[in-house]
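Help!! Second protein's tokens look totally different from the first
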Amino acid sequence: MRPFLLLFTCVLLGSSAGVGEAPAEQAKAEILRIHEQDRADHLRGDAADLASRHAPEFVSVADGRLTRGTPEGARKEMQEYFGSRKHRAWEDLEPPVVHVSPHGDMAWAIFRVRSRYTESKADGSQQDGEFVCAWTSTYEKRDGRWLMTSVTSTFAPTQQDKEASR
């Protein structure tokens, strides 16, 4: 009886050891898929799809300001942005850092990308550009979907910024 009890205890402990890991790894993979969708949306200029992953109300922190937004507001803003800027590249400079809460319903992620784009100017000319951006996004899982609830972003100074500050 004692060997059976020991074996049963080992099986029980062994089977529960990975219980918390599998959902967290699955959630991490889902957040990384969202990042890939965001990349594809930037390359396609798809503002509607990009905004569809925003929470009904989200917070953005940039340039020393905190703003509250909605998916519809984000769609309009990104549609205007994509109207004059076509991204040719949107590449990770470092592997994304993703952390999922123990309960698997909240997460945060840190990304750092380089974008290369062509911007259409008001006079009809086009200008190539690039930027490096890093940001932290927070996510909540609501009704089975991960939605971005906040984003805090920063941009590295461009060569033009550096030259202008001399």
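Here's the second one for comparison:
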Amino acid sequence: MRPARAVWLDGPVFTGFGGLPDLREVPVYRGLSGFKKFLLRGNIVDLAVAVVIGTAFTAVVTSFGDSFLKPLIGVIGGGGRLGGTLTIGGQPFTWGAFLSQLITFVLTAAVIYFLVVLPLHKLLERRATEPAAAAGPTELELLVEIRDLLRAQQDSRLADPSADRRSSPVPADG
């Protein structure tokens, strides 16, 4: 009796994309592998976190400027809707808005300096003043030392040939 053949296995079997070029050979792919290495380094994650935090901080500072600085400048500049505005020859100059943005910039720069730059400089100074670990001997120094020890051992054997003779492991009959 003849064994039954599996019908679904009679057709061509998929063996992969053998007819297509290897993507590792394509120059664009090589550039993408460098991009992949760049993405997988820790710096890109730190950069992404900094952008998110910077965006949130900008929103806080902008809200502070809109909620407190603009009204304060408006009150100092004469109050009302036109406070912080100077009109010359029919042209309004909004010096209050400029002053508000200038104060916002100075506040942002101060916060960045005191919360990021200054602590980083102190950390780098602390690391610079720490004593460096004593470096061990280099590979060349170790090899020179081994050579000198072997040479001294060889010289001592040449000077006293009886010192190199070992007793026989088998006891002598006698």
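Reply: Different proteins will give different token patterns, so don't panic. Helices lie at 27-40, 42-76, 95-129, 139-159.
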